[in-house]
């Protein structure tokens, strides 16, 4: 696979990702980072109400949902890690440490096998194997990467 890292991506000051909820509720949930109190709010967008508040790492910023909607990845800027939230239980099931990083954004490949984390300040993007929750590569890029996106066919980031 050929990867192209683009420095022209930007992220908003907050992140929202929507997905179909678990099979029992079939609700659409939005996962919103609250960088001031190190939590993620889960909003049921059908009922328009807060259904959970999840503690994550320091200064959560980036949010990405895997293609089947079972996991949400949160880039914790001041913890040098990524929290993995199980959407069926709205609990953190893993915390992935990313050495030498200041993670801001996060993106998931279309097949859900890889997670890409731009590390602003370290001019790198970390690649995480979603099955093992392990960092498998660190790719050097331009100055200050904040966001990432993956092409629909997964061939480029």
Describe this structure in words.
With 157 residues, the chain is mostly beta strands. The protein has one domain: 7 Propeller (Methylamine Dehydrogenase, Chain H), CATH 2.130.10.10. It has no helices and twelve strands. The strands form three sheets. The protein has a four-stranded antiparallel beta sheet with strand order 1-2-3-4, with no helix packed on it. A hairpin with a 4-residue loop joins β7 (81-86) and β8.
Main-sheet strand order equals: 1-2-3-4
Averaging pLDDT over every residue, what do you get? 85
How many individual β-strands? 12
In the CATH hierarchy, the architecture is 7 Propeller
Oligomer: single chain
Proportion in helices? under 10%
Write down the domain tally. 1
Largest sheet: 4 strands, antiparallel
CATH topology term = Methylamine Dehydrogenase, Chain H
Strand content: over 45%
- Euclidean distance between termini CA atoms: 10 Å
User: Which regions contain 5 or more consecutive residues with pLDDT less than 50?
Assistant: 1-27
Order of helices and strands: EEEEEEEEEEEE
CATH superfamily: YVTN repeat-like/Quinoprotein amine dehydrogenase
Estimated structural class: mainly beta
Main attributes?
157 residues, mainly beta, Methylamine Dehydrogenase, Chain H, four-stranded antiparallel beta sheet
